[in-house]
Amino acid sequence: MDRIRIVGGARLNGTIPISGAKNAALPLMIASLLTDETLTLANLPRLADVALLKRILGNHGVDMTVSGKRIGDGDLAGETVQLTARTIVDTTAPYELVSKMRASFWVIGPLLAREHFAKVSLPGGCAIGTRPVDLFLMALEQLGAEIEIEAGYVVARAPNGLRGAHVDFPKVTVGATHVTMMAATLAKGETVITNAAREPEIVDLAECLIKMGAKITGAGTSTIRIEGVDRLHGAWHEVMPDRIEAGTYAMAVAMTGGDVLLEGARYDTLARPLEILTEVGAEVTPTNEGIRIYRNGADLKPVDVTTEPFPGFPTDLQAQLMALLCRAQGTSHIRETIFENRFMHVQELARFGAEIHLDGQNATVVGVPALKGAPVMATDLRASVSLVIAGLAAEGETMVNRVYHLDRGFERLEDKLSRCGATIERIAG
Ligand SMILES: CC(=O)N[C@H]1[C@@H](OP(=O)(O)OP(=O)(O)OC[C@H]2O[C@@H](n3ccc(=O)[nH]c3=O)[C@H](O)[C@@H]2O)O[C@H](CO)[C@@H](O)[C@@H]1O
Ligand SMILES: C=C(OP(=O)(O)O)C(=O)O
């Protein structure tokens, strides 16, 4: 298993190109199941999750060709991939694949809409909470599907096709909003989703579906309207930049000090976390090329933050912010409201000498004057990268074990950071 070795203490200076967003790329790739024509996706990040989804889609009959420019080993640009689901050859998404990544469950929407049948294993993914799928099933039932759970699989049937309906989510869910939106594109009549997720990745998917011929309005607001059409066609779409990757590097620069341009990052997708970073003591400047983050040696200030659905502070940046606050002068409070078990980085951050107290969904972070490098273990994707951030700012050597979590969501992390002056390397093993 690969490990990442870091020698902390260097300031970060330079440019970090931001990759295509994992959490947009996955639903966009899944949308290829909705049409027998070619969906071309540009700026697809080279990530373990994208590779796994290629296998899952291949199993359903999606042909994939890579046509993007690759300039060489040092190239940081994403891939352009053409996905063509001429016919769906298998409507089952098996346990062996779906259990590895939660988003693969989302194939249920397009398969059901196009084939009127889907058998999809209950999902896996990051161990950050129980993560049920009841709201997906509720929405698909409202669109007319008959659903049964058989031996760990969701079996969904819509013999006469799906029909438009009012789907009112009792809580904001990104995944179920994606799936309902995709399924409703081919349903008969109008679907109205209320209390829909407003995340930028929902907007990115809606924009792609519209290019494919879907009739969707309101994506990015709490009410999305979809007028079903008979068929969708091919399209070209560029995956939006990854706001979580950009936010992660922003936290890293705020912690180590330095001056970094996050190339391609979009301020509108990161307004709340960047506002928090400003409160903490970093300088944040949106530019034509992206977002510039600067901090000199000034003290970091403590803050109180609650994770919330977009446009609130994202749960996917909570671990990274916590790492940063370990070095603030004073006591910060973080409340996690999205996932019930997303504090697994706390015990690992303690290995650096951090002082964090947990009480249910609340963490109290007492800033310490210095962190010391340590061997640590990654437990999930964003927790892993919080350990990298802590390691970059800590004195001495840090070894991050179980790096495969990082490879799910961060493209060439060690390349991007070492180009900015960090001492960081991957040790194959
Ligand atoms: C691939 C992807 O895009 N993953 C993101 C997506 O995950 P994901 O789409 O899985 O997260 P959701 O927005 O659905 O989850 C929000 C909350 O709703 C609950 N819930 C969800 C569905 C359901 O049927 N029943 C239910 O109770 C979840 O357990 C959680 O407590 O949004 C999360 C919240 O921004 C992010 O942390 C993940 O990175
Ligand atoms: C939790 C995440 O991913 P997933 O929903 O795929 O587990 C994440 O991207 O932080």
TrEMBL record:
SUPFAM superfamilies found in the cross-reference section: EPT/RTPC-like (SSF55205)
Signal peptide coordinates: none
One of the Pfam families matching this protein, by short name: EPSP_synthase
Domain Enolpyruvate transferase: 8-417
PANTHER family xrefs: UDP-N-ACETYLGLUCOSAMINE 1-CARBOXYVINYLTRANSFERASE
Family of the protein in this entry: Belongs to the EPSP synthase family. MurA subfamily.
Name this polypeptide is given: UDP-N-acetylglucosamine 1-carboxyvinyltransferase
Organism: Kaistia hirudinis
